[in-house]
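Lecture notes, part 5. Sequence design as translation. It can be helpful to think of inverse folding as translation between two languages: the language of shapes and the language of residues. The source text, in C-alpha cells, appears below.
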C-alpha cells in the first residue's frame, strides 16, 4: 500500500527549547505555534516487503545518521503497535529547501505519521498519532493539530498538541524571510541546558503561554506579536549564553529586526518572531502584508513568502514515487 500526506510547517509563538526526555522528545514546558499555510511538506510512504531496511529520501537525498534514526524511530513505533513486520519506503519533499528555522521538521514528521498509518490502513486515534509523530520532532504535534495549537509537555501523563482556534478565527498573516544556516536544531536544544538563563526562562514561560493562549482566543494580534517577539529574544538569549555561546542569527536576521522596528515607528503594525535558526517571521494584519513584503524587497530580500494560517494535514492522491 502507498499513501501521501501533506502537512504545514509551524512558526513557534511561545517556543519550546530543550528536552526533558531526549528519546521521547518531552519538553520542559508547554508551547504554542501557528501553522504556515503557504508552506508544506509532502510525504509518500509505501509498505515495501522487498526491502531489507527502511528507505528514506528527504528532499532528494537519502537520509543517513541521526536524520535516518529519527524517522526509523517513528517507523519502529508504528511496527510495534500495528504488528507490521516489514519495511517502509518514504520520500518527502519540502516546498522550500532554503532557510533554517522554518518548522519543516514539524510538517515532515506530521505528514510521515499520517501517510504511514494510511498506508497500513491503521485507524489510529488523534492523541495516539500526536504522541507518535512527537517521537520524530516535538513540534510535529502542533503541525498535526493545525492552525494555532498548544503542545502540552505533560497533560494527564501525556504529551500531545491540540488546536486553540480554527485557522480563520481572526485576521492574522505572516511574511516569512528564509535565511540559510548549517546549524542543527538538536544542537541548540542541547546547548540551552548549560545556560545560566535557562532556569529563569522556565520560570517565566508558563505565564507567557497562558497570556498567549488568551490572546489567540480573543484575536488580539498586537499581544500575540509582542509576546512572540519577547519569547524569541528569551530563546536566543538562552542559546547565546550556553557553554559554547551558540549564535543562531545571521547578519540578515539583524537587518530584518531593525526593519521591523522602523516600520513600527512609522505606524505599521508588524512584529518579528524567530525560531531555532536565523529565518524570520513577520506577523501582521492581512491588509499590511503586501506593504511589509515590499519594504523587505526594497532592502534586498527577494525571497519573502506571504502566508495565512494553515490547517491540519491531509491525504492526496498524487504520490512522490
Amino acid at each position: 500500500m502507498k499513501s501521501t500526506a501533506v502537512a504545514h510547517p509551524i512558526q513557534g509563538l511561545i517556543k519550546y527549547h530543550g528536552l526533558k526526555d531526549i528519546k521521547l522528545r518531552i519538553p520542559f514546558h508547554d508551547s504554542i505555534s501557528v501553522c504556515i499555510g503557504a508552506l508544506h511538506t509532502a510525504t509518500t510512504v509505501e509498505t515495501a516487503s522487498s526491502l531489507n531496511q527502511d528507505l528514506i529520501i528527504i528532499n532528494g537525498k537519502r537520509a543517513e545518521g541521526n536524520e535516518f534514526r529519527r524517522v526509523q524511530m517513528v517507523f519502529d513505533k508504528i511496527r510495534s503497535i500495528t504488528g507490521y513486520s516489514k519495511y517502509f519506503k518514504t520520500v518527502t519533499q519540502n516546498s522550500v529547501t532554503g532557510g533554517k528555522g522554518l518548522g519543516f521538521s514539524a510538517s515532515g514528521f506530521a505528514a510521515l505519521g499520517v501517510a504511514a498509518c494510511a498506508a497500513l490502513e491503521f485507524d489510529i486515534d488523534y492523541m495516539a498519532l500526536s504522541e507518535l509523530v512527537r517521537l520524530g520532532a516535538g513540534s510535529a504535534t502542533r503541525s498535526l493539530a493545525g492552525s494555532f495549537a498548544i503542545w502540552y509537555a505533560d497533560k494527564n501523563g501525556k504529551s500531545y498538541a491540540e488546536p486553540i482556534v480554527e485557522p480563520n478565527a481572526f485576521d492574522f498573516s505572516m511574511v516569512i524571510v528564509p535565511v540559510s544556516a548549517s546549524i542543527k536544531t538538536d544542537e541548540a536544544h542541547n546547548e540551552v541546558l548549560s545556560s545560566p538563563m535557562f532556569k529563569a526562562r522556565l520560570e517565566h514561560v508558563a505565564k507567557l503561554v497562558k497570556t498567549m493562549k488568551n490572546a489567540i482566543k480573543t484575536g488580539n494580534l498586537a499581544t500575540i506579536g509582542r509576546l512572540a517577539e519577547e519569547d524569541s529574544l528569551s530563546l536566543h538569549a538562552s542559546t547565546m549564553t550556553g557553554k559554547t555561546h551558540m549564535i543562531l542569527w545571521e547578519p540578515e536576521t539583524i537587518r530584518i529586526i531593525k526593519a521591523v522596528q522602523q516600520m513600527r515607528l512609522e505606524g505599521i503594525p508588524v512584529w518579528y518572531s524567530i525560531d531555532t535558526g536565523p529565518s524570520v517571521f513577520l506577523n501582521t494584519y492581512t491588509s499590511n502584508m503586501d506593504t511589509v513584503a515590499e519594504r523587505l524587497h526594497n532592502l534586498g530580500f527577494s525571497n519573502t513568502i506571504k502566508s495565512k494560517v494553515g490547517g491540519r494535514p491531509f491525504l492526496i492522491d498524487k504520490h512522490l514515487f
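The translated text above is only one of many valid answers, since several sequences can fold into similar shapes. Residues 43 and 92 are 4 Å apart (CA to CA).
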